[in-house]
Amino acid sequence: ALALDLPYAQVRHIERCGLLHDMGKMGVGNEILDKPGALSDQEWAAIKGHPEVGVEILRYCPVLAPVLHVVELHHERYDGQGYPHGIGGTDLPLDVRIITICDAYDSMTADRPYRRGLDRNEAARRLATGAGTQFDADLVHLFLTQVLPAQRGALAKAL
Predict the structure, then answer these.
(1) CB count, 10 Å around CB of 79?
(2) CA–CA dist 56, 79 (Å, integer)
(3) Which long-range CB contacts under 8 A does 102-107 form with residues at least 24 apart?
(4) Digit-coded pLDDT (tens) for 43-77
(5) 87 to each of 19, 35, 59, how far by Cα in Å?
(6) How many alpha carbons fall within 13 Å on the CB side of residue 153?
(7) Neighbour-count burial of 135, counting CB atoms closer than 10 A to its CB (0-12 exposed, 13-18 middle, 19+ buried)
(8) pTM of the predicted structure, to 2 decimals
(9) CA–CA gap between residue 72 and residue 77 (Å, rounded)
């Protein structure tokens, strides 16, 4: 959002969306989320249902109404092959397309009970591979050329 030079209020909105997009995982259960092996069809269905569960959890708080579409749509894909609705392209709002990229990068680089996180270069390569299909190609380019280098520069300065 900052790299796009979006207005402050929109940046704050996207930040809130990033914090709340996976709220529905509260309804999935740690026995599934932390399972070290393959998921059954029933377990996978529970995981795929977390966007709708998140909407149900958050819809009772009117101040969070602006984030509900991101919670619901953050597993949609740019090519329309995502879930829960199969929406794609620019029919996906900009905030959803941004969160999808950031969430994927975070997920790829984080350690999970069932796998080690990828190194940053491999995660970046996979984002590039998904540009235009899973992700908005222009936003992936921006993420790879501006966001990640700035993040790495800030980390290097902190060390």
Answers:
(1) 14
(2) 26
(3) 102/18, 102/143, 103/18, 103/21, 103/22, 103/74, 104/130, 104/134, 104/135, 105/143
(4) 999 999 999 999 999 999 999 999 999 999 999 99
(5) 22, 29, 21
(6) 6
(7) buried
(8) 0.92
(9) 13
